[in-house]
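@here heads up, posting the sequence + SMILES for the fe (ii) ion run so it's all in one place. Ping me if the SMILES looks off, I pulled it from an old spreadsheet.
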Amino acid sequence: MIKIFQITDCHLDKKPNEKDIALKYLLSYIDNECVENKVVFLTGDIANCSERLAYERVAEYIGKHSNIKSCYAVAGNHDDVKIMKSCFYGTKIKIANEALIDGVRFLFLDTSQKPLGGTLDLGAGRITKKELYRLKKASRKNEMIIVSHHPLIKVGGKWFHKIGLENEKQIEKIIKRRHMVISGHAHDALSKNEGFIQQFIRLSSSYGFNHESEEIMRTADSGMTTYQIESVGGLPTVVSYEHIRITDSVTAS
Ligand SMILES: [Fe+2]
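bot reply: prediction finished. Complex structure tokens:
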């Protein structure tokens, strides 16, 4: 059984602030967990405006926690995957295509490319043809969990659809058979099962979004999610999950 700690949408700025405090709190929470295999997934929007200094700080914070066995990152719409690669080079944070962790296969999908058409808003994403091909090829093989920044199936209100994925239909076609997806971007604990797709979308470490609202509205709801995952008869299965919330007293300290 493995334990995954999903930290998403940290949105760290050039200079340290309360978002850094929140992230450091979550990392210290991980320290206190009594599990052997601690794996962290950073599911995008790690830095605001792809700030180098923000990426460097994340690598430094995670590097200090020797009990985090490994850490995998995907880029979000606020990130630049090239800058991330250069800042995380030689650190514990990996930007990988795939990982096999204790018999469970994960595929990391880059949704950070800007849409080609003009119908979506700033914040939307796209999967390149190359990434689509990789997803198609991988989904024919063993069962896997897909990890991405943007959710792969439609969730949330209209405003959130405008910052979704441009080629979502193509993706759905590929993953419709049966797949589990772990994403960020929504800044809320939204989950949705559609057909055979089980989509987990999680809390941001920086701030929340109210998906009941007609337009973008921030909330104070933030934190991270932990998952207990194991391979049951070759199928990756989320045995349980838990939201770890950040309270005001954490960031006020
Ligand atoms: Fe995002």
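MO: The longest strand covers residues 235-245.
MO: One more: The chain has one domain: 2-245.
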